[in-house]
Amino acid sequence: MRMANQAGGVEWVAICDAWDQRRDEAAQFANGAAVEKIADYRNLLDRQDIDGVIVATWDHLHSHIAAAACHAGKDVFVEKPMTSLPMQGHDLVRAVRSTGRVLQVGVQQRNLSQFIEAKQRFIDSGLIGDVNLVRTWWNANGGYLTPAPPGMERKPAGLDWEACLGWLPKIPWDPKRYFNRFAYWDFSTGGQTGGLFVHLVDVVHWYLGLQAPRSSVALGGIYKYDDGRDTADTISLIVEYPKKVVVTFDATLRDMQPKESVDIVFHGTGGRLHIFRGGYRFIPADAKSKDAEITAPGGPEFTHMGNWLDCIRSRKMPNANVVDGHYTAMSCHMANISYKEKRRVEWNKEWEV
Hints:
The protein is α/β, with parallel strands linked by helices. It has helices spanning 2-7, 20-27, 41-45, 59-71, 88-99, 113-124, 161-165, 175-179, 192-208, 302-314, 322-341; strands at 14-16, 36-38, 52-55, 75-78, 103-105, 131-138, 215-221, 234-241, 245-252, 262-268, 271-276, 279-284, 294-297, 345-346.
């Protein structure tokens, strides 16, 4: 909602959440509008005066609510990862194609100025040369160690826990899952894989024109935070693509130093490109000094939401579309399968859309 407000041109009419406290908190970002507060998202989708919805839920509900919104005639902004299971992408792609709705996935790098500029300047121009290896990492993300606030041992009266679970098996109220979703497979997509790697590998797909991986392997475990979580606190994975490209990802919750904690590094015959939200740095292959490096700062993030809003009006395809969202998520799913089943995972044609 904050990003949409910065992009401008938005009129808020309704807020939906399974917890009444969250509904009240969200209403404060509605620019003073007298929004209707709704507990069940299906009642929100029944309204005829809504053009678009933002789906900002736990991972396991992303595709289900997004597809329902498309069928209800709404355009959709859905958080990443777009899916929590491989075959969910098929249902959502069909929903978008059959209804003609505009769906944007929340991988905001696709609309940040430094990413667009670097792609044109180093990738599209051919300056970087041939790229066979992209290294990525993301450490020090404190959101993956979020404790439940004191007093939450008993579920708040105004919170619908069954709505939070959705299609998952019914289990008793679990404040750890509610507040620290990335620590659990059912509420997230492999923790750091679907929460962090999804952003990084999406840039690689976009820059290098990749879709379906060829294979993936992953190793890691719960080495430090054995606090009831079932997703790894430390993970290392490799995804291989038919275009002779290998992408790596490393993440650990042991290293909480924010400096240089995240990066995407394209290793090319013409140079090396480091890039993320803070900006980019290109080091030409023949650079003799630091003065030869090319750098640029990062740009505002609300442009991604702005692209979706513009596409609602123009009916053009947004920059992070549903098909790209499926294949980006599949890179995460394959790594997760490898981690859980302790084997190399090959691409399955059933996953194609």
